[in-house]
Amino acid sequence: MESCPTNASWSAVEAAAAAGGGGLGAALLATLLTTLAGAPARMRAEAGYPPDAADRLLPEYDFVVVGGGSAGSAVAARLAEVAEWRVLLLEAGADPPLSADIPPLFHSLQESEVDWGYETEPQEAACLGMEGRRCYWPRGKVLGGSSVLNAMLHVRGNPRDYDAWEAAGNPGWAYRHVRPYFIKAESFEMPQAGRPLRQSGVQEPNPWGDYSAPEHGSSGPLRLTQRAWRSPLCGAVVRAARQLGLRVGDASGGRQAGFTLQHVAVAGGVRQSAARAYLSPAAARRNLHVARRAAATAVLVHPGTLVANGVRFLLAGRNLTVRAAKEVVLCAGTVGSAQLLMVSGIGPRRHLQSLGIPVVRDLPVGENLQDHMQLVAPTYLFNRSHPQERTVSQWMDDTYEYFAHRTGPLASLDLLQVQGFIKTKYEDPQDDYPDVQYQHIRFPHRDFETVERVSRVTRFRPEVHEAVFGRPVSRSEIYVQLAVLQRPRSRGSIRLRSADPQVPPAIDPRYLTHPHDVAVLVEGAKFSARMAKTKALAKDFEVEMSREAVPGCEHLAWETDEHWACVVRTLATTIYHPVGTCKMGPASDPGAVVDARLRVHGLRGLRVVDASVMPTIVSANINAPVVMIAEKAADMIKQDWGAIAA
After folding, report:
1. Residue of 295, 165, 258, 115 whose CA lies nearest to 579
2. Angle between helices 515-532 and 232-243 (to 10 degrees)
3. Phi and psi torsions of 132, nearest 5°
4. Is 2 exposed, middle or buried (0-12, 13-18, 19+ CB in 10 A)?
């Protein structure tokens, strides 16, 4: 039954909106949502997560999976398909909050209790516009991990990314091998596939591009869509791409260059996290136990045999131990898995010895850190002669539509649903290997609350915030076309600050220390400026680049390469895609931590299955590749233990 909020609830919303200066963002919306009788309970029941097993843990399981994020949820659920195996999943966080289910509220989850809330070390060549030159690193501390607080974008990457993994000595990881696992994971709602438009008897192409059904799964656990509410600006961006001669079509169907309507992990207007996709269907399996608020503190390794045989963890203030009869599988992420290995004595010898940690295995854990950077610039004004400002009444209508029908703006990601991939002058024009990705964010006129929240999680200094967001949004609706560096050459590291596993590690990505990274993002900014001048944007939507000077770059001639390079070093920030700290590679590779079957070199009974194993970062948002890695790893584990044929 549909429920309407009371008049008293609407009055509270109106008062809060007035106090907030007219911008109604995630915090206010989250308050509003709880006033809709029955809706929270209904959405929670739909999730159907497994019950908490914290009070009924066994002393031993066949497999202990550490980390219930994108990889851990998938691995645990797939291993539990073998009925005779007992599987324990340890997750440091709790269940996702209600606000996590509602697509556009993802920014509200950062800096919340479901976020580890890491920060980088001060950067020498980047993050110049941030407080203390530090970039903020949100990572999921919740069942479902970062798939609960990310932007739900499902992007595979370029086939050449995976072919390079195999060429580096990792058999079975070429695109032809991993493609079936992308398909296995997906249940993709095709966008008007096979239904071209007809006008005056002439067949016209789908305005959103061509999509190949055989390239996508239709029965996997992770439900994806492209059918959601879209602002008119989405279509304008796609038309602008066509006016520049770019292809429009599926970026995960074998070809990547061009613009496309994004695949998003949303179904029925609700976020499809890895926990919802994999753990909810497995909730009734009696051989799968899931323990919340169980923070792993060490992997237990027998000193004589070098076999990992258990995990120590902290639960409700107690130090507990659980044994693993077959394997420990680390799925704690690029930060968490590296930290847990090192505090367990698996890592660089000198570093561990400096902290008094007995060395179990000398391996380059924590090295090879890579991340995508996004340039939060230029800012564009649009609809300047009649800027649209969201009213309290419109927000209330949107909220009612969402809970009544799961449609409308609250069921979508708005302009984030459009993405693009281009090749700069640094790539071979004959190759389909783009080096810049584009994503987009949009803010209504005078939506100060939302832009301040976004600015806060980027850690922009106040004067930088005012130049990038504050003054522009006071004049007009604004959007930012985010240029994302796809294959950074800069490399960083993660190091322990302490032998105490509860002390956050030191994260130093060394952003933009390789000059090529700056040069590519400069080209990315210049392309964005050209795109804004197309008829589809400049004329039809009155798009104009904001001329607010970026603090620290005022002395440079506008739109020169020197100017853009300064903007890049000041405004570029993480897009939350850290990978590589437990690099996959053969034993002959001095930088490798795990082999091609994700087993830790020199040890038995221990694997790492998450983004940390990527030898090189993929040309895409990393959640879909991480799920693929988990699907493939689950099959490899089953093969190695005789559950399925090799």
Report:
1. 165
2. 100
3. 65, 15
4. exposed
Cis peptide before 378 (omega within 30 of 0): yes
Give the span between the Cα atoms of 506 and 494, in whole angstroms.
6
Q: Which of 378, 369, 371, 619 is nearest to 522 (CA)?
A: 378
Say if residues 448 and 456 touch (Cβ distance below 8 Å).
no
Tell me the β-bridge partners of 119. 136
CA distance to 424, 466, 598, per residue, from 511 (Å)? 20, 24, 27
Q: What is the 3-state secondary structure (H, E, C) of 264-315?
A: ECEECCEECCHHHHHHCCCCCCCCEEEECCEEEEEEEECCCCCEEEEEEEEE
Q: Which of 514, 563, 577, 601 is catalytic?
A: 577
The answer to pTM > 0.90 is yes
Task: Give the integer Cα–Cα distance in Å for 485 and 628.
Answer: 22
Place of tokens 């939350």: 576
555 CB-side CA count, 13 A: 1
Mean pLDDT by 10 residues, the chain (646 residues): 33 41 49 52 73 96 98 98 98 94 89 94 97 96 96 94 98 97 90 40 51 81 86 92 94 88 91 97 97 98 96 96 98 98 98 98 98 97 88 82 86 90 95 96 92 90 96 96 98 98 98 98 98 97 96 96 98 97 98 98 98 97 98 98 85
State the Cα torsion 263-265-266-272 to the nearest 10°. 170
3 state SS for 116-140: CCEEECCCCCCCCCEHHHCCEECCE
DSSP codes joined into one string, 51-108? PB-TTS--SEEEEEEE--SHHHHHHHHHHTTSTT--EEEE-SSBPPPGGGGSGGGGGG
Which residues lie across from 418 on neighbouring strands? 261
Whether 577 is catalytic is: yes
In whole angstroms, what is the distance from residue 608 CA to residue 410 CA? 36
How many whole angstroms separate alpha carbon 474 and alpha carbon 476? 6
Domains and CATH numbers, the chain: 1-31+117-139+373-574 (3.30.560), 60-96+142-186+271-367+579-646 (3.50.50.60)
